[in-house]
Design goal:
Blueprint (H helix, E strand, L loop, with lengths): L2 E4 L1 H5 L4 H11 L5 H17 L4 H9 L7 H16 L5 H12 L3 E9 H11 L3 E10 L2 E7 L6 H17 L10 E5 L5 H4 L4 E5 L3 H10 L2 E3 L3
Parallel strand pairs: 1-2, 1-5, 2-3, 5-6, 6-7
Antiparallel strand pairs: 3-4
Helix pairs in contact: 2-3, 2-5
Length: 224
């Protein structure tokens, strides 16, 4: 069984769910529009430049949901999925997932975006597992803080290795490993994991990843 690994934002999705979450909060009147937009855009620019401090960004993204009830969050999620995520769905991405599914591969999304935002997206796409940046909760309520190792850059490698150890311990008859894996990503921020995968695929890549993929003879794919 092959391990098929997918980045989410700007790879399987035709946009960035994390940035879109900020836009949703603004449109719903839940944050100060001007201040939040400026910060959201600044963090996204840092991500594109490779200078993002993930702890600061997660705190920024998670603070607006801190202390909210599960019922309120459910309503927000439904609105966000309908208005922001549905337009980002790509038929070619769904076809790629189905291709791996029919081949009997294990489908895993690995994303720096937090689980609160990405959990419903992963369920919609029908993958087997999601690894995402985790948010701290106390008594079922988000605190606005990050929990554990962020699923970003080298942290993706760490989180995936930890997950593989647990998975293989529970499924010794069907082990998974990086040698028999493929990883799809759009971003040079994912180079640490792309270099560990059995096959690296650059999907609608940024300029840096496109150059590196060409130098290393990695496959380049468009899902747009």
């Amino acid at each position: 069984m092959r391990l098929a690994i997918f980045d989410l934002d700007n790879t399987l999705l035709g946009g960035d769910s994390d940035h879109a979450w900020g836009d949703y909060l603004i449109s719903a009147g839940l944050v100060d529009a001007e201040q939040h937009q400026a910060q959201n855009d600044a963090f996204y620019a840092q991500y594109q430049a490779g200078t993002l401090k993930i702890e600061e960004y997660v705190a920024f993204a998670a603070t607006p949901i801190a202390g909210l009830s599960p019922q309120r969050l459910q309503t927000m999620h439904e609105e966000f999925m309908a208005h922001s995520i549905q337009p980002m769905l790509l038929p070619a991405s769904e076809a790629l997932l189905e291709q791996h599914r029919k081949a009997g591969d294990f489908l895993l999304i690995i994303t720096a975006t937090n689980r609160f935002i990405t959990g419903p997206i992963a369920r919609l796409l029908g993958v087997d597992e999601l690894l995402a940046t985790e948010l701290e909760t106390v008594d079922g309520v988000y605190t606005g803080k990050m929990a554990g190792v962020p699923c970003f850059r080298e942290g993706k490698v760490t989180r995936l290795q930890q997950w593989l150890e647990r998975y293989n311990a529970d499924n010794p008859e069907r082990p998974l490993d990086m040698e028999n894996s493929v990883f799809y990503s759009d971003s040079f921020n994912d180079l640490p994991l792309l270099e560990q995968a059995g096959e690296a695929v650059a999907v609608d890549p940024d300029d840096t990843l496109r150059r590196i993929a060409g130098e290393r003879d990695w496959r380049i794919l468009s899902l747009r």
